[in-house]
Amino acid sequence: MSKEYHPDKNKSSKAQENFVRIVEAYNILGKPTSRAQYDQTSDIETSGYTYVYKSRAHYDWRTNTHNSQSNSQSYNSKTNSYYGVKGIKKLSNAAIIMICFGIAIIGVILQVVVIKESYLIHRKRTQEKSIKLAEELEKVRDTARGKTRDMQTQILLDKIVTASNPSVATASLGQTLANEKK
């Protein structure tokens, strides 16, 4: 039928309209899913010995419009469901975007504050450690002033001996000092 009513072959005024209807019918009835949908929306009328399919609601396949208002009303009346949380008002997309931006800005501000505080705490600890090391260096310089090299070496040896095992420390340091004097 599509060859018979093709506009290039049939010069009739209704050839184009018939050709479009034939192609639409083939597209609907040729696919199992659209065929099942078509079967659900049609009634079989019997008039004598012939059977005629009639659609319940007009569907224009070219513009893809269906009596959507009545269809959506029947859907809402059947389900009576709400996709959100009951009792909370629906928000527009713009409001949701603004909330997301607000949360992102708060997150950035918190990150900046945490990084700044971490830096300040680290800086304070470093300054305290520097002050303690400066005080210890000053004590060492005070003890070293006015003493000769040999006296400073003896003080250092005494500290090492008292801090560790005296017999081992004395033997190893004595050996080191003897090697240095040679």
UniProtKB/TrEMBL annotation:
Keywords: Membrane, Transmembrane, Transmembrane helix. PANTHER family: DNAJ HOMOLOG SUBFAMILY C MEMBER 4, PTHR44825. The keyword Transmembrane helix applies. PROSITE patterns: DNAJ_2. InterPro entries: DnaJ_C4, DnaJ_domain, J_dom_sf. Residues 1-42 form the J domain. This is J domain-containing protein. It comes from Euphydryas editha (Edith's checkerspot).
